[in-house]
């Protein structure tokens, strides 16, 4: 995509300008980012999703059984009818995985890597509804889907910022307002990580949060070293074959530290392993139980289904990305990785980007043994599946 075209979604600036001036740095209010936006789902449908076992949902009731009461879904239908007239919010996570029209919204954000996107959360709030002043550790685009919401932004926060005493919610004890806007359908507010914000529903309103994932340094270190350790043998150890006689046998000398640092550097800088781990980690599905393939797929049956007009689509819960290292390609699919020959580059791009795969766009790839094998593997793994008629 051309990063130098002004985008309505970003209020008339280019993706390059947005990334340079705002992304991870400062907020941006965009009036009519999506002109005349009409929410593809309504409040009843959102509440319907919150009844489902596999959907993650929460209710925040400001004056509930205790202040800022948090209830976790799935909910029973009659719970909604017992809610107060005002000051509550229903939040439903990863709606993009359950409603294709919501997933299509993500196409607007392709100027950012798709593996950075976490999910689209949708909230419905009764008048006055809010989840309280808080900050998030990730970037978010807040798109107003229905009704009006008043947003206030405040100070930059961190893990030292004082919070209210609350068992489940991280509500800020202090909020230093700097700006305020009322958003209408199609308006969007971009917030960088750690910026205090508070959205209060003016009327019955729906807000879409396009959230991003970024691993913490602690997660990177813990998970990467866990991954690395699978490849290490017990013989690979701290060694000091060239040690000098100890001046004081109780002292840890700095040459020991240098040996330790080179042991760490040797393993930590293995680019192939780092890339493999990172790709796998960033494509781990949010709900792995929703990415399951059929037990067995014969390549022959798979091919004839396609030739009979069947269409392959990405499992909405699957996550795909690709990369290259030397002359090889790496495909990451829902937490797994696979090295592939360089000739499959265009096929990988097609698999990651296309809404649907069929004989027309797959064309010659179906005559390529590696290409066919790859598609079949992805079906077995559950990342791709045949669309229902
Ligand atoms: C909401 O939609 O009510 C909350 C979204 C957020 O502040 O992160
Ligand atoms: Co937030």
Report what the structure shows.
- By secondary structure, the chain is of the alpha+beta class.
- It folds into two domains: 8-212, Cupin (Jelly Rolls, Sandwich), CATH 2.60.120; 288-386, Malonyl-Coenzyme A Acyl Carrier Protein, domain 2, CATH 3.40.366.
- The chain contains eleven helices and 19 strands.
- It has helices spanning 15-21, 43-49, 77-81, 100-105, 217-229, 254-268, 271-282, 299-307, 345-353, 359-362, 369-381, and strands at residues 6-7, 13-14, 28-30, 57-63, 67-72, 88-92, 117-125, 140-146, 149-156, 179-183, 188-191, 195-201, 205-212, 312-314, 320-325, 328-333, 336-341, 356-357, 384-386.
- An eight-stranded antiparallel sheet has the order 3-11-8-13-7-6-4-5, covered by helices on one side.
- Helix 5 (217-229) packs across helix 7 (271-282).
- The longest helix has 15 residues, at 254-268.
- The protein is globular and about 75 Å long.
- The two termini are 32 Å apart.
- The mean pLDDT is 96.
- The protein binds succinic acid and cobalt (II) ion.
- Succinic acid binds at residues 89, 123, 125, 131, 136, 140, 197, 199, 207, 209.
